Amino acid sequence: MARKDSEGYDSYPKDAYDDPPQGPVGVHRGARPWGVRLTPFAIVIIAAVAAGVLFWGIFSGEAANLLRGRVSSSASSSAQVAQTTAAAGNGESAASSDESSSASSEPASPSESASPSEPASPSESSQAPTPEESQQVNKAAAISVVNGTAQDGYASTEAQKLVAEGYTNATPMNPGDMALPGQSVVWYQNDADLATAQAVANTLGISAVEQAPGIGAPVVVVLMQ
User: Fold this and answer.
1) Fewer CB near the terminus (10 Å): N or C of the chain?
2) What are phi and psi of 172, to 5 degrees?
């Protein structure tokens, strides 16, 4: 049967494709909001500004200065960290030295202390020289041994006792016109001769030791009965 040219859209039966949804579909969309349509232009403008700033920084040297500033700040930060670490190390070493010094200054416990020595006998304590005598005795000092008795050779005998103890300048002599004391005595000129005079008195068994600035020798021994 031949097709009639007068047949159109309405001459065909309706199906599912003849009832499209309301509104534009596919490329036939409605107008978009202004914000959406302006976003591409804003992106292009921002990119252009950023590119301009970048080129300006490169040609003007500001980028190099900024880079140097960052490098300097990084170096200063590293130096500060190193100084802090060194200070902490010094503090720890100082604390260690303080602990060691405090430990060394702590008194020893009773178990570590030496046991007390036994007291010396009376004879040992009387013969032992005092620290002052042992440090300041001058056995090369001039010592005059004066015989104030009627016993001949008594001064020489006592002077030999001193020589035997290491005194190298002990001289026996007669009193002459010297004013004699009432008992045996050892005279010394000044404080520097006190230790020597005391040691001489201990050697000869004389108890009296007196200062006499006007004597003719640093130490004068006067022997009396």
Assistant:
1) N
2) -75, 145
On the CB side of 195, CA atoms within 13 Å amount to 13
Task: Identify which of 132, 126, 144, 142 has the alpha carbon closest to the alpha carbon of residue 207.
Answer: 126
CB 199 within 8 A of CB 134: no
pLDDT along the chain (225 residues), means of 10: 56 65 55 77 91 77 62 63 63 53 48 46 46 70 93 92 94 89 93 94 94 91 90
Q: Which CATH number fits domain 143-223: 3.60.15.10, 2.40.37.10, 3.30.70.2390, 2.40.110.10?
A: 3.30.70.2390
**What are the residue boundaries of the structural domains of the chain, listed by start?**
143-223
Contacts of 203 (CB under 8 A, 6+ apart): 161, 162, 165
Give tens-digit pLDDT for 117-162.
454 444 444 454 454 444 589 999 999 999 999 899 999 999 999 9
